[in-house]
């Protein structure tokens, strides 16, 4: 009874995660406690079943795709580092961060990385292209049985037509970014973490 | 060698004998007699107040210790890890369509599902209800320790003393009382059972039950505050309450007499059940009968129809929840059509968390935890009776009662089923979400075909 989670997380680990993801110390300990409470097997890693036990996620039409985003290619377990790395995509972009450099390269919660996260939800086979088939499958997940195949097909065709600029009947990441140019990605793909 | 030990031997025996006698007399005078008479010396309240002062001191010590060592003190957030959007999914998507132009599928729609999904991974309303509530500060029990104990030696010493007191003194005392209480219940109800049915028997049965439950209350060092006792359940009604642990039964039954409902068990529980039913009618179901909803409903209705029988005590959630929320009430008891007396029970987790995580701990383990906590402190509110209104169906009535209980006890009112503790959520909820989104898509294509 009760969680002894934070005693298993070392200070060095917290510092590393802080550098990599930009979360604060207290946010990391809080999220570790959450990670620990989801980890029913108590083996320091989450499996797909652990995620599916969350009812609100289980009823989300894209629940399985979101769960998949946490697991690297071919793996069935995600440890706390991986968990935090994925969650870091949803950290809001703060103005003062544009001047700070936490890690070399793009911070995890930049616009590009948020778009990449969403792109990967569509890209089922991870080949960096969204084909018509993949788009149809994701659409089918979102609408269930309520829309006919023909209607769904025409929606998919229209979407690809509008986005595709190089005529290969697939949507690449650049084309995807172009289509969503005007959308406030930073706001839509951010979660307000409390301090 | 033997002659050496001999004088010590008899001395030890004498000391043991004296301490047993003294102990037993104290027990009798301070605990059992008041339980029989229904009075209280106020010892438990004094104990509770001293514990509160102790915890406050411990918290200050911890904060000071953490500052000195420049460590971060783990603080659980009672308001949550994230601030969620209050709007529903549908509303969010409608917002996107505002921009005039041709409404149709937009690749950015996925963002909404995505964000909501990840929000529920970080913090959801359901899974946290099946683990004990987190405390703001440490209450000197290992089980709620978030790495507090290494901050100061004085604190660790205090914790050590606490362990000695709890396991060395309180636990044996409580176990003795528990056995006494249960033993008396079995013996005395069997005796009362020998009386012919009538007012005398009912009177004696009430007295016997109350006395034994009161002894059990003392066995747990439960400090209970009853509010609004004028609304106490009366014969011919059903009493419903939120469920946190099997102790709920003892807490309610030590203040009033109820008819219990439950499955027939074997072993010790079975013995207790059979003894209880000799003194006054309780409703025990065979395992096979539990599935038959009509049979269950019939037996319950028959019982409430008889005015001489005691009010039935039911926990409509069907499982133990961690006392931060009230989950879906099963509609069975609300279909019967009699007066419902709602009761709200709220435990104070600082002294000992009463929540029973039945998927993780067995009954004996749980009782051991309970009897080695500091105390069980709780408040009971008797709410005014409610009846089903015209045009209201059982589910709506159940939700109305649930909302009243949640409001009174300061608990969150959830629509989710407590059965999610063990089972998966039904597919139909996902299908509802899909339907909602389709309406937004299809509705838009209808507009287009019109233009």
UniProtKB/TrEMBL annotation, chain A:
Keywords carried by this UniProt record: Calcium, Cell membrane, Cytoplasm, Lipoprotein, Membrane, Metal-binding, Myristate, Nucleus, Phosphoprotein, Protein transport, Repeat, Transport
Gene3D superfamilies: EF-hand (1.10.238.10)
Domain of life: Eukaryota
A single cellular component GO annotation: nucleus
Keyword Calcium: yes
Cited SMART domains: EFh
Pfam families associated with the record: EF-hand_7
Family matches, as InterPro entries: Calcineurin_B_homologous, EF-hand-dom_pair, EF_Hand_1_Ca_BS, EF_hand_dom
One GO MF term: calcium ion binding
Any one GO biological process: protein transport
Residues covered by the EF-hand domain: 26-61, 110-145, 151-186
Subcellular location: Cell membrane; Cytoplasm; Nucleus
PANTHER family linked: EG:114D9.1 PROTEIN-RELATED
Entry's family note: Belongs to the calcineurin regulatory subunit family. CHP subfamily.
Protein name: EF-hand domain-containing protein
TrEMBL record, chain B:
InterPro entries: LPCAT1-like, Plipid/glycerol_acylTrfase
Subcellular location field: Membrane
GO molecular function ontology, one term from the record: glycerol-3-phosphate O-acyltransferase activity
Primary location group: membrane
GO biological process: phospholipid biosynthetic process; triglyceride biosynthetic process
Annotated GO CC locations: endoplasmic reticulum; membrane
Keywords of the record: Acyltransferase, Lipid biosynthesis, Lipid metabolism, Membrane, Phospholipid biosynthesis, Phospholipid metabolism, Transferase, Transmembrane, Transmembrane helix
Annotated TM spans: 20-43, 151-169, 175-195, 366-383
Family listed: Belongs to the 1-acyl-sn-glycerol-3-phosphate acyltransferase family.
One protein family per Pfam: Acyltransferase
PANTHER family to which the protein is assigned, alphabetical: GLYCEROL-3-PHOSPHATE ACYLTRANSFERASE 4 (PTHR23063:SF37), PHOSPHOLIPID ACYLTRANSFERASE (PTHR23063)
Protein name: Phospholipid/glycerol acyltransferase domain-containing protein
């Amino acid at each position: 009874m009760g969680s002894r989670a934070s005693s298993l997380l070392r200070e060095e680990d917290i510092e590393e995660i802080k550098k990599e993801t930009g979360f604060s110390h207290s946010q990391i300990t809080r999220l570790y406690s959450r990670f620990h409470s989801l980890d029913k097997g108590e083996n320091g890693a989450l499996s797909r079943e652990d995620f599916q036990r969350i009812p609100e996620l289980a009823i989300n039409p894209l629940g399985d795709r979101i769960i998949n985003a946490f697991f690297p290619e071919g793996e069935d377990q995600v440890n706390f580092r991986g968990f935090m790395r994925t969650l870091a995509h949803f950290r809001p972009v703060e103005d003062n961060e544009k001047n700070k450099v936490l890690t070399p390269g793009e911070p995890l919660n930049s616009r590009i990385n948020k778009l990449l996260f969403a792109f990967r939800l569509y890209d089922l086979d991870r080949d960096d292209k969204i084909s018509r088939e993949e788009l149809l499958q994701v659409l089918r997940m979102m609408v269930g049985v309520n829309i006919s195949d023909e209607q769904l097909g025409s929606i998919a065709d229209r979407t690809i037509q509008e986005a595709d600029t190089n005529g290969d009947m697939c949507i690449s990441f650049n084309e995807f970014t172009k289509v969503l140019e005007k959308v406030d990605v930073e706001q839509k793909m951010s979660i307000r973490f409390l301090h | 060698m033997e002659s050496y030990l001999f004088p010590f031997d008899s001395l030890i025996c004498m000391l043991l004998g004296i301490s047993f006698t003294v102990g037993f007399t104290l027990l009798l005078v301070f605990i059992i007699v008041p339980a029989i008479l229904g009075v209280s010396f106020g010892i438990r309240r004094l104990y509770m107040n001293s514990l509160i002062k102790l915890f406050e001191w411990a918290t200050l010590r911890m904060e000071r210790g953490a500052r000195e060592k420049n460590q971060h003190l783990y603080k659980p957030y009672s308001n949550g890890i994230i601030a969620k959007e209050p709007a529903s999914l549908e509303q969010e998507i409608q917002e996107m369509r505002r921009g005039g132009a041709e409404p149709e599928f937009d690749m950015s729609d996925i963002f909404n599902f995505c964000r909501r999904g990840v929000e529920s991974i970080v913090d959801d309303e359901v899974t946290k209800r099946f683990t004990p509530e987190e405390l703001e500060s440490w209450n000197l029990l290992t089980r709620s320790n978030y790495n507090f104990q290494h901050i100061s030696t004085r604190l660790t010493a205090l914790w050590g003393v606490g362990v000695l007191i709890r396991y060395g003194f309180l636990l044996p005392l409580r176990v003795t009382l528990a056995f006494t209480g249960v033993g008396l219940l079995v013996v005395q109800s069997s005796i009362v059972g020998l009386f012919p049915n009538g007012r005398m028997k009912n009177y004696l049965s009430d007295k016997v039950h109350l006395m034994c439950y009161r002894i059990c209350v003392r066995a747990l060092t439960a400090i209970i505050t009853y509010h609004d006792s004028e609304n106490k359940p009366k014969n011919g009604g059903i009493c419903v309450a939120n469920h946190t642990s099997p102790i709920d039964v003892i807490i309610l039954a030590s203040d009033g007499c109820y008819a219990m409902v439950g499955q027939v068990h074997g072993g010790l529980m079975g013995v207790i059940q059979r003894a209880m039913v000799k003194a006054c009618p309780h409703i025990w179901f065979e395992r096979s009968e539990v599935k038959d909803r009509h049979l269950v409903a019939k037996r319950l209705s028959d019982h409430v129809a008889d005015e001489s029988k005691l009010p039935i005590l039911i926990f409509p959630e069907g499982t133990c929840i961690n006392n931060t929320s009230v989950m879906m009430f099963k509609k069975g008891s609300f279909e019967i059509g009699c007066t419902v007396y709602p009761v709200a029970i709220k435990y104070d987790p600082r002294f000992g968390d009463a929540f029973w995580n039945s998927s993780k701990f067995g009954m004996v383990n749980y009782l051991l935890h309970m009897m080695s906590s500091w105390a069980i402190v709780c408040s009971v509110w008797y709410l005014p009776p409610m009846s089903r209104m015209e045009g209201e169906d059982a589910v709506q009535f159940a939700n109305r009662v649930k909302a009243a209980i949640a409001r009174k006890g300061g608990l969150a009112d959830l629509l989710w089923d407590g059965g999610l503790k063990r089972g998966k959520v039904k597919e139909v909820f996902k299908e509802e979400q899909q339907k909602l989104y389709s309406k937004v898509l299809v509705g838009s294509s209808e507009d287009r075909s019109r233009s």
